[in-house]
Design brief:
Helix 1 crosses helix 6 (about 200-215). This protein has helices at about 15-30, 40-45, 60-65, 70-80, 90-95, 200-215; strands spanning about 5-10, 35-40, 50-55, 85-90, 95-100, 110-115, 130, 145-150, 155, 165-170, 175-185, 185-190. Helix content is about 25%, strand content about 30%. The protein has one domain: Class I glutamine amidotransferase (GATase) domain (Rossmann fold, 3-Layer(aba) Sandwich), CATH 3.40.50.880. The strands form three sheets. Strands 2-1-3-4-12-11-10 form a seven-stranded mixed β-sheet. The protein has a three-stranded mixed β-sheet with strand order 5-6-9. The structure holds glutamine.
Length: about 220
């Protein structure tokens, strides 16, 4: 029996409970030897092999981490090659190296070697769900409902040796934008919210298998 792995979901702010629910379902339905916990403290973080940073408001997330003296522990954790990290939406922003816009208030974790553009598709009213064919990296997943809410995109990859795009979509009349990417073997980022896909846990199943169970 492999050692039980622990996946943390950063629970300072945002849609962390939805990730916890989907991860727990994915672990149960696939008999993965994994526990899932909310993470708000250094003690909880130190239990984790992997950390999911959810959607929400990245500036708020960063400020709470700084004001609770948690930022440095988060920085150390995400920069460990022994840990895996998945940033969704605000989580993608929070771990990015550079921000193309709205960077005045936020202190990021400088993990993802990319420049990220916040609110790339516009405001809340421009949020949308797009059925995506992820089968190039998630076998047979040809129709995943990806929900974009005031979503960021990867505007520029700063290290093409380590950061590989996984999926791009058109952005109005501009060139296609990167909305999912992987850095090395242990960092995943998505602009969209798989935790908000009605009852569809395929993305979380893939994350657990690739970035936790097999990592
Ligand atoms: N759904 C989200 O996580 C939105 C992210 C938010 N627009 C930010 O800049 O942090």
């Amino acid at each position: 029996m492999t050692r039980k792995k622990c996946v943390g979901v950063l629970a300072l702010q945002g849609a962390f409970q939805e990730h916890i629910d989907f991860l727990e379902r994915a672990a149960l339905e696939n008999c993965y030897n994994v526990t899932v916990i909310p993470v708000r403290t250094k003690k909880e973080l130190h239990l984790c092999d992997s950390l999911v940073i959810p959607g929400g408001e990245s500036t708020t997330m960063s400020l709470i981490a700084q004001r609770t003296n948690f930022f440095d522990d988060l920085y150390t954790f995400v920069h460990s090659s022994q840990k895996s990290v998945w940033g969704t939406c605000a989580g993608l922003i929070f771990i990015s190296d550079e921000l193309e816009n709205q960077n005045e208030l936020i202190k990021t974790l400088h993990l993802l070697h990319a420049r990220v553009k916040r609110n790339a598709f516009g405001r809340q009213a421009q949020s949308f769900t797009k059925v995506c064919d992820f089968s190039e990296f998630i076998p047979e997943c040809t129709d995943f409902p990806a929900t974009f809410i005031r979503a960021p995109v990867i505007d520029k990859i700063l290290d093409s040796e380590t950061v590989k795009p996984l999926y791009t979509i058109p952005n109005n009349d501009e060139e296609d934008v990167i909305v999912a990417a992987q850095q090395g073997s242990n960092v995943l980022v998505t602009s969209f919210h798989p935790e908000l896909a009605d009852d569809d846990i395929r993305f979380h199943e893939w994350f657990l298998k690739k970035f936790v169970v097999d990592f």
